[in-house]
Specification:
single chain, eight-stranded parallel beta sheet, 12 helices, 11 strands, 14% strand
Amino acid sequence: MISTVVGSYPVIIQPPKTRKNKLFNVIRGNDKCKTAIQHSVKSQVKAGIDIISDGQVRGDMVEIFAKSIPGCKIENNTCVINSKIFTPYQNIGVKDLKLAIKYMKQELNELNISSKDKKKKGVKGIISGPSTIVQSSKIGPIYKNKDLAIIDMANALKSEAIALEKAGAKIIQIDEPFLSTGLIDMEIAKEAINIISKNLTVPVAIHCCGDIKNIFDNLIDFNVDIIDCEFAGQPTNLDVLDSYSTNLKSKKIGLGVIDTKKQSVESVEEIAMLIEKGLDIVGDKNLFIDPDCGLRLSSDEIAFKKLKNMVEAMKLFN
């Protein structure tokens, strides 16, 4: 089993304390989010997470991408697609990924862990999915058919996936929470995901929220290595997973074992019970253990405790 996170983490921006650090901050462009990334990375590493994220500290999942993709703009906190979608002129998340890798290595060097355990560590590159971005947007007259916008968005995001892989991402994760709503044509969604994942050499994951009963058979056919879903907040998803246990086509499962909608900390025993159910269905070699979704809306203290207990629960099965 490998522990990971879905993506977002509480944003803690810490102002520089020393005169030297204040000067460095000005020289480097006064990027306050760097301290938030560092805090997110430090917290995840200290909690014992194997594959961490940069914390997605620069905004919500749609805004981070839409504001950098030609053809899109943000108006009143909403993405508006007002012209044809093109590939971004520069990478969107590569700098933050590299920062996260740097901070992770610094933290790991201070911990007494084996070389074998260090090899498991890494940072995932995260891309907001084309179907979710388009479905969350206001569409101008250029796209009378949303399906065409989704395909163009996928082609625009392909370069981001390649750049994240080159920058050292351990996994590429595509976030598609809208797939479970029934509003998306799953064939178009599959085509879009396949555009992004084609020819990538690192494992590719797709993250879906909600009830997967009506979409899981489609997800199995997507060109991804890992299917990541909610199981703590959506316990009936375990029944769906069980019904497909003999037909997963070598897919690994991201097992959400922490309910990120709850502002309480699950006990180690509660989490262990859910992990055990996942183990019984797909086995330990096919499991990534993570929260149901991002932790951005949790307090810093609760987010850390949830992750810490998740790792402690995993240790019961080692």
